[in-house]
């Protein structure tokens, strides 16, 4: 694990110089959970309250057709029952997925806290709805039953909190909401649950309004997770993709090229929503091929991927989400060597053949193994990779397949390798998608970037 700075100062130069704890980059894959009162209507998406209150026709019509005229958003909370929530079952699903960290929504923009916060009176999961400490129960199950790192998402602002709206009306010259609500919640979360990821969102004002640098300096110097915690970049309207731990930049951020700073692709299996929605169709869900394409392209370019599912109001991970997560875990059981603990190679995509991504990792002998991840299974016969340069000692294997793969050097090019793809019987194929060729003892090539910021 990287050595932490002994005294990080409350300014961005000092905060940004803190090295990320090594567990985060090595993990590569996390699970994101969007769960709250919005899971009760489970219609449209997790911004239900905002769209309804601001007059979006789809939401206004839905409420007019299904609820009494005097029904309020707060009335939904009583039906946030979580009566089928079994945190041990969730922990087993997430462990089977192969994910190495988890980020649970502790509070979304609606302001409802999934723990009994003393700063959220009668609008938290103990006082109304579940009558349970959802954050605490899941944290305990994850830590008791898995080796997954537990983290929390926290929205700084709240759409309709009167304190926030007053500060906003004052052009944030006043800071009552930040001082009395948002930041005390964050300190409470850290001290009570000791999350190893703080995923901040909803900044809505510049960092000085929140005193983000002051909180982060405390987090890195004095908090109970000071040596292990990682944070993202959403600490002010002026900090996205500029300051913080890893960069989350925008939702579903996947630039497709190597980045100089550690980054994360927070994305959704449901293409249109972070929260569960009852009207979702199968076609709205990422297929395994699409999901693995996101995973592979993200990791190849130096990122982590945070894969979101939305639990139901009664506390279930619905079968389509469970199936995708378990299938991901089955794929990682075969091909995890090409994902966990890897680094970007000189090339991210193959220079000649499309739908091929690369990762690399030092082996026990200190030399570099390169993994070519094929999103499409090629026809049997010669398959050309334009980026690797073989040596006489090069070996090629297909992860999960026992027989070595034959290859020849390119006769027409100084760079490149021709791999002989065997005709593998269906019942001998190591996996159903995204096959990985491991290339050992290639010729050395210069790096495009020195990723000193990682």
Automatic annotation (TrEMBL):
Catalytic activity reported: a neolactoside IV(2)-alpha-Fuc-nLc4Cer(d18:0) + H2O = a neolactoside nLc4Cer(d18:0) + L-fucose; a neolactoside IV(2)-alpha-Fuc-nLc4Cer(d18:1(4E)) + H2O = a neolactoside nLc4Cer(d18:1(4E)) + L-fucose
Residue ranges occupied by any Alpha-L-fucosidase C-terminal domain in the UniProt entry: 348-440
Pfam families: Alpha_L_fucos, Fucosidase_C
Domain of life: Eukaryota
UniProt cross-references to SUPFAM superfamilies, sorted A to Z: (Trans)glycosidases
GO molecular function: alpha-L-fucosidase activity
BP GO terms, sorted: fucose metabolic process; glycoside catabolic process
Glycoside hydrolase family 29 N-terminal domain ranges (all copies): 7-336
E.C. numbers: 3.2.1.51
One cellular component term from this protein's GO annotations in UniProt: lysosome
Keywords, comma-separated and alphabetical: Glycoprotein, Glycosidase, Hydrolase, Signal
PANTHER family linked to this entry: ALPHA-L-FUCOSIDASE, ALPHA-L-FUCOSIDASE-RELATED
Function, as annotated: Alpha-L-fucosidase is responsible for hydrolyzing the alpha-1,6-linked fucose joined to the reducing-end N-acetylglucosamine of the carbohydrate moieties of glycoproteins.
Subunit structure: Homotetramer.
Family designation: Belongs to the glycosyl hydrolase 29 family.
Protein name listed in UniProt: alpha-L-fucosidase
High-level lineage: Eukaryota, Metazoa, Spiralia, Lophotrochozoa, Mollusca
